[in-house]
Amino acid sequence: MTQETSGPAGSRQTSPGTDATNSAIELSEIRHYFGDLLVLDGIDLSVPARSRVSFVGPSGCGKSTLLLMIAGLLNPRSGTITVGEAVEPSSRLRRCALMPQQDLLLPWRTALDNACLALENRGVSRSAARKQAQPLFERFGLASFEQSYPSQLSGGMRQRVSFLRTLMADKAVFLLDEPFGALDAISRAAMQEWLLSAMSEVPKTIMLVTHDVEEALLLANTVVVFSSRPARILDVIDVKLPARENRLEAVSDPEFVALKHRALGAIR
Amino acid sequence: MIGSPATRPDVAHSAAPPATRRRSRLWGFGRKYGSAVALLLIIVVLWQAAVRLFSIPDYLLPAPTEIVSSLGDWSILGSATWVTLQEVVYGFAIALVAGVAIAVVLHASALLRRAIYPLLIGSQSVPIIVIGPILVVVLGYNILPKLIIVALICFFPIVVNTLDGLGSVSEDYILMMRTLDASRLAIFRRVEFPACLPMMFTGIRIAVTYAAIGAVVGEWAGSTNGLGYVMLEAEPNLQIARIFAVIVILTGISVVLFTLVSIVQRLVIPWSYTANSRKDTT
After folding, report:
1. Would residue B217 be called left, alpha or beta, if left means φ above 0 and alpha means ψ between -120 and 50 degrees?
2. Scanning every residue of chain A, which has its alpha carbon at the shortest distance from the alpha carbon of B198?
3. Mutation to test the A interface, candidates B171, B172, B175, B180, most A Cβ within 10 Å
4. Number of domains making up chain A
5. N or C terminus: fewer CB in 10 A for chain B?
6. Is residue B3 part of a domain?
7. pLDDT in tens, B27-69
8. Which residues in chain A are closer than 8 Å to B177, comparing Cβ atoms?
């Protein structure tokens, strides 16, 4: 059962397929086991380039595992994953950047130098990398925190630096694994608003894993609902809601609430 | 104390801030080491009293005052200290370079780790005292056998701690670096090596306190100068105070080296102190 996510969901994307760095993602018949335990039970999904998809499902259902597989960090027992034209794990890895659940900032590097990691890994000198990363700090609300060490930043700030670090990798596909899972509810809400505006500046295919249905609906234009383990796709929801002033208005919209009920109903 | 207004009224009035700063630094120093110094003083005083009270002869247990006056024989102790200090510093430097290099190689190759690590652990049960004379026979009465013995004693804690530190990096960091296009070498340089530094320094601090013992053991195996040699000479002549004086100097060398390593550690990895500032072992 191939789930198509085209149509009105793609209203914010430029026509898929004509993109030079094609970042469409195809999952077909993905099956995976941990030992003898079936965790992914035949996942089929096709994601057009430059769309924004969130995976929602109960904790431990295997959605993060799926993200690692798309990134090329893990290979499924069976099935194929295609990112653009890339099928091999190593070539998928070249097209995907992953923002992990914990910020995983290096404590001995300043915020700015943490953001420079991807460029330095590619052989860019540190001073040149800093020049490229610097303007992003201004743009993403981190100005004047460039020289701070991670231990001096709040959890939300560290996640922003982590986002910048992933962004600096400049990949066609941006994978976020429960990016705000470690934050409290209040900074989480603030970070969702921040991420929403940050993502609108990043024309990439974005996939986001969360166990929070509200977060999934708020941040993506397609929500894929997974069952508990072994994970199967229960529903694919196109989110086409009018733009709202702020998060509170968006989540109290009756249509939003209806979609939330639909997703929660599917999981139950 | 030194900068107190009572003894230096001129300074206290015109330059209050530096004086108070100096005083607070002294206060901090006193709070940190005061109890250790006080305990040492108590032991020394009791020691002196016991020797006088029970009229213990010099050749059994010299009084602290005897030891201090024996420290004045600088014509003998000076050159011996210089010889031993060189053995300690060079031997330790060899252990540091070799220890870190071995740890890096063992970390990089699982095959070599499986092959070599058990042998390294086994090597620690070989008594160095036995190896010493053999090394002297092979290499002669020069500095070489001493360097090898110091290095043999010191390298092991450096290898073990560095290797543990390199392996302590969580898999999540490695995956994160791989999605940021890091090669194996880049992961080592930018994540694993910096992450292992706190543990590496723990190993270095343990090792540096062994170095002086290693030098003395090396000198006992065969030498013509050095603090271990002075001890060997003093013993048949019942110059026990001189032996204690040598112990005082060896302790001084260890304390100074340990302090130097701690200072270097603070300069190299300041982030490890901001992260866990409760750890105050230096």
Report:
1. alpha
2. A108
3. B180
4. 1
5. N
6. no
7. 777 777 888 889 999 999 999 999 999 988 888 889 999 899 9
8. 117, 121
